[in-house]
Amino acid sequence: MRGGVTTLKYSNIFRKFLISYVVILVIPSIGGYMSYLTSISVTESISIENGVTQLQKSQEILERRMAEVEGFTRQLAVNQELNVLMNERDNETNVYGIWRTMRNVLTFGQTNDFLQNYYIYLANYNLILTPGSSYRPEHYYSNFNYKDLSLQDWIKEVLEKTHRSEIKPLSDYVSRGMQTSVITYMQSLPLDSFNDSSPAVAVVIIDEKIISSLLSGLTERYGGWVHISDAEGNTIVLQGSDEQKMAHMTADSDFDKNKVSQFYEDDLVITTRSDSNGWVYQTGIPRHILMENANKIKQMSIQITGGTLLIGLIVGLILAYRNSAPINHMLSVMKEQFGKEEASAKNEFDFLSGNIANMITKNKLLETELNRQLPLVRDAFLKRLLAGEFKTHDEILTAAEQVGINLKQNTGYVGIVQINGYAGMDSVEILNELNASRLLLKQSLSDLGVDVLMTDMGSDKVVTLFFSKEEETDKAYEAENITNILENLAQYVFNEYRITTQAGFGDLFTEITEVSLSFDQAKQALEYAVYMNKKGIVWSSEAQNENTTYYYPLDTEQRLISTIRAGELEEAKRIVRAIVAQNMEQRELSMEMKQQLVGEIKGTFLKLLDQKAFTEYPDIESVKRRVIDIGSSERLEMIQTEFFVIMEELCGLIANKKKDVHIQIIKQIKEYTVENYSDTELSLYRVAEQVERPEKYISQLFKEVTGVNFSDHLIKVRMDQAVILLKDSRYTVDEIAMRVGYNSSHSFRRAFKRLIGVSPSAYRQSIDE
């Protein structure tokens, strides 16, 4: 009875402590939370109002600028000089009319930064007029182009197509090597063009950065994003975000496109739509910016609430201390009664049973984990043993006993069994199949009753350790026994699982510390078996007996021939040095093998000299005789030196032939330039097409051989012809400029004065005087 009263008493005390602590903490928390909600509501309404106003102002400015762009094209439509050029059908180019149009018409856009980059395409002239110059379409495209349109697509979709106030959405654009993003406004001229093609097209290129500057108030002030799209959903401007995020937001069913403002993810999204062109304007304000003012109130709330919580915490600690005394007493009783049959209070029993169950569970988990890790520990021991990481015999025995391996004998053999048919394959399916094959191979050895230690080596190999059963076992008998075991294993896994194997074994190790040496010998034996495609088992002694052949593979011979044919002397010498080093340092060649190696290399050079690149050489027979006369009995270093001398002569011959070819190409370029200097379209690209060589190669070659750039050479040829024509009074300076390949007489006069030193008129006057 007394115990029940005490428990109830302590329960009432704990209940009072809990209620008083909760009351102290809940009252200030509710006040702070209400203040925080109020700040959010007020800030949200103000931010939405400001965002809508800012977005509407940006929309108004942008639409006014686009209206100016449209007005600009209407001014072009009524311009008389441009209309004259559009309607001309004369075969000759009206140079003066084009120049006058460029001066008068193409200066309209100086007051609007949206009109900084535009051009007019004249279909009858196939000519593009810009504020600074005129271009052929292909020349303009080489400097200014859309990354998503080829030259033909650009001509077809922009220049030759009829446009009626058409806007090409945001596209990647290259302007003189600089990458940017632009939208394009296109209007065919005259305005009533309804056919598939029109006489002219006015195209305005508007950089995204210019449009983005109008929206900087939204992005810089709020740190958010702005997205403008046309009526079809194509992006016009995107700043502060990416296309993927916008597409995801538009496709999300939780996002309402018709709402002016709404929260989406962490942004307040404001949306307006233009009544004039159907464009959709959207801006996103990050929630943390939106809550900036609310955070100030939140900080104040935290300070007030924090002070209140601190006071409540002190009071709670006092109450906790007072209430913890009976609880501690109860715990001490539980410890005293631990293990007795008499049950204690319910809480004590729960605490005791819970801790015991937890200890049992952890003990079982530990035991399970140790059993699971044992194979991994054994595998790690075997890999360390094979790698020779143990220093002493006792250290090996101690580590073996730790992992449960009983090393009774110190002698045995190390072998490597390789699963065939998977060389060079590393897909997931192949690796899974190899894992299964290795398991089957190990299981098959166990099924055959063989006592052997095994570990994996790579994905397709299993290392085996066969220990001798007795100290005085005959070596030959033991090797024969292992051979029989491996043959039976190979036959068994092939019959059961269609697995084929190869094996390499090292020599007998007489001490456990020599296992790593036998392992290295097994690797060499296996490599030899794979190289020689030998089936079954190859012992280390067999591989060493056979390693007397010379090293000179076919791919090395082909690489040597190709290198000499290319005139690369140093690379050819490096290949020969590698062949000599491989055969001198890593192989003990007999005299017969050495003579065969030298004969093979001589045969390589004779095959090389029979190729067309050298048959025209007048002294080719003497070179062949020198190759044949190289003595096979000399030291390889002396033979290498003789081959080097021959290679130097052959590479020098290749270099001279290249020089002759270069001189012939330069002669061809100069002749083509003299024949076509009057062509205004003559360029290095045209010359490269003529001589069928890359443009960059021609540029470098011409500079190396002549000492001047091709452009300077072309100017000199044209000026030389201009000097001849200036002596004839029948031609004016403008006519001479056209005859020597200049579209502009001003450019001709400037080039003439820079090269000759005086103007064309002054030069003609000096001739007359």
Automatic annotation (TrEMBL):
<keyword id="KW-0472">Membrane</keyword>
<keyword id="KW-0804">Transcription</keyword>
<keyword id="KW-0812">Transmembrane</keyword>
<protein>
    <submittedName>
        <fullName>AraC family transcriptional regulator</fullName>
    </submittedName>
</protein>
<dbReference type="InterPro" id="IPR018060">
    <property type="entry name" value="HTH_AraC"/>
</dbReference>
<feature type="transmembrane region" description="Helical">
    <location>
        <begin position="18"/>
        <end position="37"/>
    </location>
</feature>
<dbReference type="InterPro" id="IPR009057">
    <property type="entry name" value="Homeodomain-like_sf"/>
</dbReference>
<dbReference type="InterPro" id="IPR041522">
    <property type="entry name" value="CdaR_GGDEF"/>
</dbReference>
<feature type="domain" description="HTH araC/xylS-type">
    <location>
        <begin position="667"/>
        <end position="766"/>
    </location>
</feature>
<dbReference type="InterPro" id="IPR020449">
    <property type="entry name" value="Tscrpt_reg_AraC-type_HTH"/>
</dbReference>
<dbReference type="InterPro" id="IPR018062">
    <property type="entry name" value="HTH_AraC-typ_CS"/>
</dbReference>
<keyword id="KW-0238">DNA-binding</keyword>
<dbReference type="Pfam" id="PF17853">
    <property type="entry name" value="GGDEF_2"/>
</dbReference>
<dbReference type="Pfam" id="PF12833">
    <property type="entry name" value="HTH_18"/>
</dbReference>
<keyword id="KW-0805">Transcription regulation</keyword>
<keyword id="KW-1133">Transmembrane helix</keyword>
